[in-house]
Specification:
heterodimer, A: mainly beta, seven-stranded mixed β-sheet, B: three-stranded antiparallel β-sheet
Amino acid sequence: QITLRESGPALVKPTQTLTLTCTFSGFSLSSSGLGVGWIRQPPGKALEFLALIYGDDDKRYSPSLKHRVTITKDASKNQVALTMTNMDPVDTATYYCSTVVDKYVDDWGQGTLVTVSS
Amino acid sequence: SFVLTQPPSVSVAPGQTAKITCGGNNIGSKSVHWYQQKAGQAPILVIHYDSDRPSGIPERFSGSNSENTATLTISRVEAGDEADYYCQVWDSISDPVIFGGGTKVTVL
């Protein structure tokens, strides 16, 4: 059974850097064609892809956020981290960790709400 | 980047059929995936590769994709189908994972 769990601060101030961690189990990031990604959803709005990483360290980013987002992995700990710089109130959202299999999102974490406010 | 267009809302009576469209330029040349998101919950995959149902998804859910429109069809709609539905494609040129704006399905 695959599980993903997001962790990190619930509240960050504007201009700060956000770091979220996804701890997963039930699969190996070294599996071919399987990656771990981050997707966010502002309250009442649509899903938005942020970043994706594969076991060979291949990384994909949303072009619109590439300058602010970094994704890394620690395979030994079964963890993937997302860092987003210069946080703004518009970045307030639920952030989901997920598996990406081939070309679709398969399993999702429960999500973590991050509020950006002074 | 590739844009997916969904109607904001669809209303359907119980027992009837709901059709949710996802428009995109020549979307028929891509694989389309669909997600259901109930209030306060994470999304779940209901259709992948245009028309394949993952294990555990009822046969009432089906999908099609041709030319410029992909469609998710929910037959014999139940109250429990009330949710937001998102289509998604993979675009290796721009955003790898692209979502539509979502459609809220209301069961009357």
